[in-house]
């Protein structure tokens, strides 16, 4: 990591390098006309204090066979590389051919992980060019298998490991990662609720790493300005605990006061060490996910992706479907099948949106119905329900004579506009349930979201066939088109990268409900659906995810500014000699351009050879 890192585009700003030197590379002369900037900027030459094998072993600096002859001479690489100089295009072609030789998704996941640890530009450019094929390899569903096998497939550490048995070491361990201005975005997990496969203990570090890869791929956050953290509080996965190769604590998960105090110390240390960083809670269990969000959301810019990220992307799909069929949100009823963190997060987001459209909270909640393994959540179940679930409990006397454990009977009674699955119960949306939905809706909206794919409540082909292709479908995992109908994936990568990027660039003090709602409305407005034609799908295609994230981020930034939650305009323009303050354009299109020029892109840039300065350069990567 480096200190003195520029956060904004250098274009048009007066600047000078932290250390003097000469950039080396194909476009050096052109780029010398730009201000010189530190290595973690998004354009211009990059300061590099490394040489020789240290340089080749740095995934942020390494270009592999693409180092030019000038760079090889300047940085002591002669004799350490084959003589032929390749372009990035040639490297991508070679890497993709190597990938295609591999037969299983998990083998491909291993290959991509190794590449990410060697050369981040090549990794992200390869994924970008084959995004639809490779996102399922580096994220869900394949990443779930990699996480489950983490201790057996371990090669080298990434991120920060915090141990509940050593709570007083938290600040020191975070400090070993970098300085106060080194980190923009942090993903933390305690590994309890991983991707539909449950408690994976120390393997939770991999989900944090995967989410950060998507933050860079989709949201343009610099890969050198992020940090993955795992909180090792034990595991209740007995198979892991008995495994002699398991690398985490083997005792049962710590709960209660000790857990809460550990989290408090983590948050306090994080705020002290990285005061501007956005915190992303990932895959915490039902017992902790919501309480942690409620406890800390007004202390620092944080959000829970399983609750708010999932809720945002599903809400956007729902709005797009309603608009396509000329239906009104306030007249809609929603049945959420699976009332865990994701399900309740979706319900909460729908309520927030209904309230923004003029409904009261009670009116909005009356339109939302939730089911879990016990059936429809009702008042008599409050003792066994979380506080978040209790908000959606229905009066028992209104359901007398109805088998509230039967999904088809509940659908028949409610006549929901939209059926959402977060249950991990494969096949729960069977033909009887779907046809009952269709009986009450000319265009039923059905979202089977459970991961991994084998746990989906239904497959798109069946949903379309059972409704004569009238259902509007979005899923939680990637599916191939069905007879020309593109199946949108309600993947959180459509929501959290844009929300996170917006919060980072705004220097948000918190992430408010209105900021999330602004992201939802913007994402919904980008739906490719056309009047009378539902074949394009509810959400934009994955191939334009960078543009989608930039627009979502723009909406988030403008909302943060409107609410007075943005600190960015209190900061000086980086490297300015005149002391000007940053000014963010209020016009959407101009603000969008301001966002785009700050998004990192996987391109090789000329290196600026500098001497190592311990006050500026640290070597976490």
- Approximately how much helix is present in the residues? 40-55%
The separation of the N and C termini measures 6 Å
- How many separate structural domains? 3
Q: How confident overall, as mean pLDDT?
A: 91
Structural class: alpha/beta
CATH topology tier name of the largest domain: Rossmann fold
Low-confidence stretches: 1-20, 29-39
Largest sheet: 7 strands, mixed
Domain Malic enzyme N-terminal: 116-297
Keywords: Metal-binding, NAD, Oxidoreductase
Binding site for (S)-malate: 451, 491
GO molecular function, one term: malate dehydrogenase (decarboxylating) (NAD+) activity
What is the fold's blueprint, element by element?
Layout: E1 23-24, H1 28-32, E2 46-48, H2 52-56, H3 69-74, H4 88-101, H5 105-118, H6 120-129, H7 131-138, H8 142-148, H9 150-153, E3 160-163, H10 170-175, E4 185-189, H11 204-219, E5 226-232, H12 238-242, H13 256-273, E6 278-281, H14 286-296, E7 302-304, H15 305-324, E8 334-337, H16 341-356, H17 361-366, E9 368-372, E10 375-376, H18 387-390, H19 407-414, E11 418-421, H20 431-440, E12 445-448, H21 460-466, E13 472-475, E14 488-489, H22 496-506, H23 513-525, H24 545-563, H25 588-596, E15 607-609
Parallel strand pairs: 2-15, 3-5, 4-5, 4-6, 6-7, 8-9, 8-11, 11-12, 12-13, 13-14
Antiparallel strand pairs: 1-15, 9-10
What does this entry look like structurally?
This protein is of the alpha/beta class and 621 residues long. The protein has 3 domains: 1-131 and 605-621, Hemocyanin, N-terminal domain; 139-300, Rossmann fold; 305-570, 3-Layer(aba) Sandwich (Rossmann fold), CATH 3.40.50.720. Helix content is 41%, strand content 9%. The chain contains 25 helices and 15 strands. The chain has helices spanning 28-32, 52-56, 69-74, 88-101, 105-118, 120-129, 131-138, 142-148, 150-153, 170-175, 204-219, 238-242, 256-273, 286-296, 305-324, 341-356, 361-366, 387-390, 407-414, 431-440, 460-466, 496-506, 513-525, 545-563, 588-596, and strands spanning 23-24, 46-48, 160-163, 185-189, 226-232, 278-281, 302-304, 334-337, 368-372, 375-376, 418-421, 445-448, 472-475, 488-489, 607-609. Helix 11 (204-219) links the parallel strand 4 (185-189) and strand 5. Helix 5 packs across helix 6 (120-129), helix 6 (120-129) crosses helix 7 (131-138) and helix 15 crosses helix 23 (513-525).
